[in-house]
Amino acid sequence: MHPRILLVDDDPAVLSGLRRAFALEGYDVLVAEDGETALELAQGQALDLVVLDVILPGLDGLAVCQRLRAASATPILLLTAKDTVPDRVAGLDRGADDYLVKPFALDELLARARALLRRAQPQAQGTLEFADLVLDLQAHEAFRAEEPLKLTPREYELLVFFLRHPRQALSREQLCQHVWGYAFEGESNFIDVAVKELRKKLEANGQSRLIQTVRGYGYALREE
Known about the structure:
Layout: E1 4-8, H1 12-24, E2 28-32, H2 35-44, E3 49-53, H3 61-71, E4 76-80, H4 85-93, E5 98-101, H5 106-120, E6 127-130, E7 133-136, E8 141-144, E9 147-148, H6 153-164, E10 170-171, H7 172-180, H8 190-202, E11 211-214, E12 218-221
Parallel strand pairs: 1-2, 1-3, 3-4, 4-5
Antiparallel strand pairs: 6-7, 7-8, 8-9, 10-12, 11-12
């Protein structure tokens, strides 16, 4: 299930760009150009994250933030044009979980969004399973057919990401952004090399392939 995010900004160009960027990252995106619309959408949707501009027509972002926080624990990331301590404190006091000053780098916004979602995920202390593959998040251990897998830290994070998105086609850009934390350079093959090494360990005992190639796009955790 894709994380559902509400983007709130009164600039149509900014809103359109953010919507496209988050959609490409696999988010289910809702948008609002004013505070009242944002509150209406929030009442009728189960949200995983709200990205909220402070300067809005009518009801401003701080007031919206306060009302959202009074109604739920959904993480809220404020976008603000002001970088003074009182401005930051005002947002945090109204219930915001994080803030980002405009203008900002899109990669940083996406990284902060991922961090907030990770903090809010209740399954962080449980297990992830697919077919005969089991990953214990608390013990930081992975097993295939009850046999332990000796994974590097990066291979472990890569496997976690696949397990959090079973059967979903994941682009090389998504894998790079979520696992390595930076934008993918198309001419590099390090994603393919990393997947190849992870496959070797998953298939070491003659096991079937679980990480399938999606030609021209990326990979997916699927049974053959």
